[in-house]
Every structure is written in structure tokens, then in C-alpha cells.
Amino acid sequence: MRIQSLTLALITLISVGCNQRDAQNKGVEVDELWYEQAAEDWMQALPVGNGRLGAMIFGNPDIEHLQLNEDSMWPGGPTLGDSKGTVEDLVALRALIDQGKVHQADKFIVDKFSHLEVTRSHQTAGDLFLDFKRKGEVTDYYRGLDLDKAVATVSYKVDGDQFTEKIIASNVDDALIISLETTAEKGLDFDIQLSRPMDKSAPTVLVTTHNSDELIMDGMVTQRGGVVENKPYPMQEGVEFQTRLRATTEGGTIEPSDGILELRGVRKAVIYLVTKTSFYHQDFKAKAQENLNEVASKSFDELLRRHSQDFGEFYDRVNFSLGSSDLDSLPTDKRLQRYKDGQVDLDLQTKLFDYGRYLLISSSREGTNPANLQGIWNNHISAPWNADYHLNINLQMNYWPSMVANLSELQQPLFDFSDRLLQRGKKTAKEQYGIQRGAVMHHTTDLWAPAFMFSSQPYWGSWIHGGGWLAQHYWDHYRFTQDADFLENRAYPFMKEIALFYMDWLQKDATTGKWVSYPETSPENSYLAADGKPAAVSKGAAMGHQIIAEVFDNALSAAKVLNINDEFTQELKAKRADLTPGIVLGEDGRILEWDKPYKEPEKGHRHLSHLYALHPGDAITEATPEQFKAAKKTIDYRLEHGGAGTGWSRAWMISFNARLFDKASAEENINKFFQISIADNLFDEHPPFQIDGNFGYTAGVIELLLQSHEDFLRILPSLPENWSEGSISGIKARGNIEVGITWDQNKLTQLSLVSPETKSVEVKYGDIKKKLSLKADQPLILDVSLNSKTNN
Ligand code: FUC
């Protein structure tokens, strides 16, 4: 596949007259999305990104549009709001719950502790338009995204003359670069324009020309329609930025005119675009200039080579195939439609898997902010859910593929961000709840990492386990990478702070004698209280106790690895021993979501928070058969009542199915995911667009093929029936083991395991379970009976 792609890259580089589709028709395979027409709307445009900077490409032959993105485009600053409430309020709140006054508790929690609704959003970085003064008939149109090399291409003929545009978002050179070429004798005539949408009718940028070949767009992110405490809160300040663009040409002329660059008679042009912001650099304007000078000193071919090599270092680690790719000759939107019409397309399933990896590499790189609800791709001033960092599943789901798909470095932004959040979370714990030790984080946050509670409704805002859930990623990062330094210096300190908060938050329940967490809510969901009216706050909820148990267990495991045995671990053990259980079965055999088997107003709710312990947690496994069965029942009930209504919820289902070895349901949920939740550009739809489903899907696919959460490796635990032949390589299991699997007629044909260290590992395939020895860096190749094919 790589050699084929390289061949393709060479073909496309040397031949303007031969587009990718022509090459493909000649039997060259490539991981690509492709279309026969320009994007009419944003959900048809194609994303490129370097982790921080990105664009959505429309490919319009008349006026080409690149909608621009940068990950720190936020209004406001770190100072917005403070924690609310006091320790006395917390005592009063708990008393209301103890007295069964849950509706009063619901009101009280919001009145006393919440900043109510806050609207301040991640925003678009603006738009780049290339106005081709084009007359003539456009034929042979092609628009594609090569996932292998992370290059977008638009090509077509106008009156027989070939036009080719290539776009990359380079991480190594930190720029967007666009190359344009034509075979037309008279060259291309076009204007280059930069702009950014108004904020409530107020201009947000000033565009000027510089020298004869540069555009400079200066601005600051504002949010005049901002809301805080449910009240208008115009934000007139925010992150400052400069976007700088330079055009170079072969042949023809460039003239600056009134904030526009006019290019005439150009046979070849390269446009370099950089954006720097005050979030990252005090001297962001000087940095932008420096960045532009550096990138513009290189040719497009050189930049493309550097970019593809850098991108490939991540992307090429994994290869997934389910057999034939014959349908590659069909445009992606037509294939998708065919799928939506009922014809399952296995190769498109592998493309969507690869796309998840592509999107993560493009939206989360070392030193950037983590991928938000839209990754980095956002055309709004006020985005859905502010395109922020929701901590009650969405941000975490974004990072589910990172470890299993062998992209552990890409988690770095999540940890850098979470460490900032931890600092603010300590303040919130003290100020809001009077808890002196540790840190708390609520259901959502943004670039400035506030940890306090904000929402006007208790059922979504008053959840306190954002930090607890993030702690799982720290521990898992260690389990996958075995990076002892990370464990000692990053993971354990984070896990300890979260555990400390919980230790002081828990209350002794007079009836059960156990430690109970309350006030609790179950993310975004409500139950029917004794009077038949919906309520959110309860005395304990499944997810809260599952997360607390996990944080305690993982912190103790980490302490063991680090040889720590101190007052903290002693106290932790004692509290853990008497913790209220988070997995309790109701009479109907389902897992309870709250402290009692309440009636539910929304039986098919999209969140399955009480199954956290099944996935992404690991407390429910085959080794806990009753809970395992109950988890299946819980899922079935949700689905019978219209569950999995959003893209991310459906994607989560695939991982649940995988953990329950429910191949048939996995197959069905994959199909439904394609049929209901995937847009033409293969972005996941909540709706609207939300990238978590893309990442959840990629992670779910691996979960079907390999699991390692039970201290042994399960090979092909939940292979869907219709994935009868295929292979996957380069994926990771806990223990830092790289795994390759090939199968045919639904049976394993070859398993390969390699570890950088000599170690023993237990592996299970079907009913066979074996302990195997791995020698450092020596692949162990096994057959269907887990016997070695390599004799080592
Ligand atoms: C969670 C979900 C919503 C949405 C939002 C961004 O709160 O319940 O469905 O995905 O995050």
C-alpha cells in the first residue's frame, strides 16, 4: 500500500495532466476520499490540519474557498468567573438530599454553585478565497484527500487546459501551503483574499497588503454575543492573532490592491499561510513573520516531501484491510449513499477507520491544544456547544484511538491541558466545596481550563467527575507505553490529586456504613423521583462510584509500581475497602444508573454512563459474569427505546459490543453508524458535526480485533461475521506490545507480537490461552493454535 501510494505521489507530482483518479483507474491504490464535484456546503468540504492550524477545502473552480482554523481562537481569558458556593452550602445541599427533597436539591445546587450558562466559543480563524476569473467549461473534475500523505488535491480541465491545486497543512513547517498549476498558455488570473466573519456586525479583522506579495490579517477573538450567568456578557477581548500569507509565482505578475493580491498570467503559484496567536506567543506577530520567511524559502515539493514524511511517521504505523477495494473507483459520497441505501461497504469501513487516525494526527500534535468537539475544524463564531472540551465523554472519546492505534504521542496535548485544568481544579475544590486536598473538574471546560460548575440545569452541569475520567487516560498511557518516567512525574501526581479530592468528598452513609459520593448526577440524564417528576441530583450514582473506584484502584496500582507506601496509600486503601459499589443490579437484571431503581423519563438516553465500568473502564469483564450479562441487558434496553441517537453514542456502542463479544450487534451498529451518522466528508454527525464519533469509531474497530484490558491479550474477540477475511498491523496492546493479526474465513491465520523488552505475555484466541515469551524486538509469529511459526 505504501509503495503504491508513493508511486501515486510521484505520478501526481510529475504530471499535471494526470489526476489521481486517472492513476487509480490504472490500478494504483490509495487511501483517499474523493468526489466529482466541489463542496457546496461545509459538511462536504475536506479537512487538512497540522494539529493546530487547519482548513476545510471546498475546491470550487470559480471561487475556491478554504475555511481556516487555529486551535487557540477563543475569546476571553483565564480570569472569567470564580468558583461559587461554600462548604456550608454543600452541607445544606446534602441535608436536602438526605431528607429526600430532591427537587429542592436540584434548584439549590444550581442557585448556589453554578455559573449558569456560559457562551464563549472556539471560533473560525477566517477564510481564504481564490477568485479565479474563470470563463469556460469545467470538465474532469476531481477533489480528493489522500489520507496516506495528508494532501488535498483539486484538479479539473477548463476548455481542455489542466488545472491542479494541492493543499497541505504541514506540522514540520507550521503552515498551510497551496500549490496551483495550469497547462494553459495564458496562465491563471486570480485574486487572493483573506477575511473573517463579523462578530455581531462588528468587523473582527483588519486585512492589509505588505510588500507586493503579502496579505496580513490582524485580529482579536471577541464574542459580542457572549453569555455568562445566563446574561448577555459581550466579550470584547480575547486571543490576538495574525495570519500572514505570501504568494510566489512562476511567470505572470502579482499586484497588491486594496487588501487583495491580484495574480495575472500565472503558470504556477505557491501560497504560504501562517497564523500565530497571543495564546502561544507574546510576540506572535514577529513569530508569524519569522515562520512565513522560513516556510516561503522552501519549494512546494520540498515542503510536501517534509510534510508527507512527518505525517507518515504516524499514519504508516497501522494498516487495516478487509479485502477488496474495488469500490475505490466510486466517489466517496456515492459509495456512502450506496451504503445508506443498504449495501454494506467493508472497504469504506476501513477508510473511516483510517480517517479517524488521519483526523487525530491532524488535530492533536505535541505542543498544540487537544482536539475539541470539532477537532480544530469550525466555521462558527458561536459553535454548537461552543466547540469546547466536554469532560463527560466527548474529550475522552477523542483520545480513545490514541493508544490502541499506536499514536501515543498524540495524547500529549490532552495531558498538557489536563495539567492546567488540575491547577484550576484545586482552586475550585477549595473555594466551591471547602475541600483542601486535591482537585475537581466539572462537566465541561474550554481553552482557559476553568474547572468550576456552569450550566443552568443540574442534570448536565453538576457532575464532578471530569478529572476522574481524565485520570484513566494517564494510567492507561502508562499501561500502554510502560513509560516509568511518565508514570512518576505526570500520571501519579495527577491521579493522586483526583484521589485526594474524592477522599475528602466521600461521606459515610449512616444506613450502609459505606463511603458514598453525593450530590451525584448521571451525565445529562434524569430519573423520575417519588412524585413522578424528573430529578437529577441523587444520593450516589453508578458512574460516580465506578469512576471513584477506578481512580482509587489505579492510584494504588501506580503506587505499587512506584514503590510508594505512605499515609496517602493507607488512607486510600481504607476508603476503597468501604466504598459504595458502583455496579449494582436491579430486579430486572439491568445495572442501576442511580442509587435506586427509579423510573426513567428517557429510557433510550444517549449516555450509557452506568456502563463506564464495561468501557472505557475495565471492571466488568467475562470474569464478572452476572455484571457482564447485566451490561448486555442494559444496552439492549437502551436500544429498544431508541438509544444511540447521536453519532458518538452509536460509536460507543461498538466498543460496548466488542467488550461483550457481541459480534452481531457490532456489525449492526457499524452499519447504523454509517447510515445515520456519517456525512459526505465522512465527518461524524451528532448532528451537527462532532468529531468524537469519528474517533470513537476508530477505537471501536480495534476493540473488536484486540483487547488487553484484562491483563492478557484477546485476539479477534468480537470479529464481525461479515469481516470474514482481513488483516490489521501495528496496533498496540497494554504492555507496549505491537500486534499484527491476519484472518481468513473468520479464523486467525497469523498473529504477530513484538515488544521492545523481553517479557512474557498471556494471549487468548477462542478457547486457547497461552503464556508466551517475547524477546526484545524479535517478532513472535503464531498460528491459529498460538504455536510459534518462528521457533523462538
Ligand atoms: C454531551 C452530550 C451531548 C453533546 C455535548 C457536546 O454533553 O450529552 O450529546 O455531545 O456533550
UniProtKB/TrEMBL annotation:
<dbReference type="Pfam" id="PF14498">
    <property type="entry name" value="Glyco_hyd_65N_2"/>
</dbReference>
<dbReference type="Pfam" id="PF21307">
    <property type="entry name" value="Glyco_hydro_95_C"/>
</dbReference>
<dbReference type="InterPro" id="IPR054363">
    <property type="entry name" value="GH95_cat"/>
</dbReference>
<feature type="domain" description="Alpha fucosidase A-like C-terminal">
    <location>
        <begin position="707"/>
        <end position="771"/>
    </location>
</feature>
<dbReference type="GO" id="GO:0005975">
    <property type="term" value="P:carbohydrate metabolic process"/>
</dbReference>
<feature type="domain" description="Glycosyl hydrolase family 95 N-terminal">
    <location>
        <begin position="33"/>
        <end position="279"/>
    </location>
</feature>
<dbReference type="Pfam" id="PF22124">
    <property type="entry name" value="Glyco_hydro_95_cat"/>
</dbReference>
<dbReference type="InterPro" id="IPR016518">
    <property type="entry name" value="Alpha-L-fucosidase"/>
</dbReference>
<dbReference type="InterPro" id="IPR012341">
    <property type="entry name" value="6hp_glycosidase-like_sf"/>
</dbReference>
<dbReference type="InterPro" id="IPR008928">
    <property type="entry name" value="6-hairpin_glycosidase_sf"/>
</dbReference>
<protein>
    <submittedName>
        <fullName>Uncharacterized protein</fullName>
    </submittedName>
</protein>
<feature type="domain" description="Glycosyl hydrolase family 95 catalytic">
    <location>
        <begin position="299"/>
        <end position="705"/>
    </location>
</feature>
<dbReference type="InterPro" id="IPR027414">
    <property type="entry name" value="GH95_N_dom"/>
</dbReference>
<dbReference type="GO" id="GO:0004560">
    <property type="term" value="F:alpha-L-fucosidase activity"/>
</dbReference>
<dbReference type="InterPro" id="IPR049053">
    <property type="entry name" value="AFCA-like_C"/>
</dbReference>
